[in-house]
C-alpha cells in the first residue's frame, strides 16, 4: 500500500488503523524512505467497536492490499457502512466487491495497479456511484438474504429427497 501511495501524484492521504503485527518502526522507516510521512497517519492500536464507525464514515474508500487470504471481515464492515472498497483479487473478496460497481479489484502484490486504481477512484469521481452500489450490496449480503437463501435451498433439498424416501 505504501509503495502504491508513493506513486500517486495527487494529494491522497492514508490512515492505517489497527494493531500492527510487525514492529511499527519498519513502517515508519518505509514512510521516511518513500517521503510519505506527511500523507500517512498511523493508528497502531486496537480499535474498539465504539470507534469503528468514525474510521469508516470519515474515509472515502477502504483499501485492502492483501497478498493472500480467504475473506475479509473488514470488507464486510465497509459494506455495512456503504464504503467503496479497493481490494486485491484474493480469496473471496471479488465475491463481495464487484469491480467497477461497489469498488475496484486489482491483482495482488502489484503496487502499480493498486496506485492506478486509487487514482482512478478519485480522478473519475466514482465515489457516489460506488456508495450507491454498496447499498445494494448491503441488501444482497444481509442476514435476511442469507437466511432466505438457506430456506430456499432447504426447501429444494427436501422436495428432491422426498420421492426417494417413499
CATH topology: Rossmann fold
For the biggest β-sheet, the strand order reads: 3-4-5
Q: In percent terms, what proportion of residues is strand?
A: 5-15%
- Rounded to an integer, what's the Rg over CA atoms? 19 Å
Note the main sheet. 3 strands, parallel
SSE order, as H and E? Answer: HEHEHEHEHEHHH
Structural class: mainly alpha
CATH homology-level superfamily: Glycogen Phosphorylase B
**Helix run count:** 8
**Would you identify the CATH architecture?**
3-Layer(aba) Sandwich
Helix content: 40-55%
Topology summary:
Elements: H1 2-7, E1 14-17, H2 24-34, E2 40-43, H3 49-58, E3 62-64, H4 73-81, E4 85-88, H5 93-96, E5 103-106, H6 111-123, H7 127-140, H8 143-161
Parallel strand pairs: 1-2, 3-4, 4-5
What does this structure look like?
The structure is a single chain. With 166 residues, this protein is mostly helical. It has one domain (2-141): Glycogen Phosphorylase B (Rossmann fold, 3-Layer(aba) Sandwich). It is built from 8 helices and 5 strands, in the order αβαβαβαβαβααα. Strands 3-4-5 form a 3-stranded parallel sheet, with helices on both faces. Helix 2 (24-34) links the parallel strand 1 (14-17) and strand 2 (40-43).
Structure summarized in a few sentences:
By secondary structure, the chain is mostly helical. It contains 8 helices and 5 strands. The protein has a single domain, classed as 3-Layer(aba) Sandwich (Rossmann fold), CATH 3.40.50.
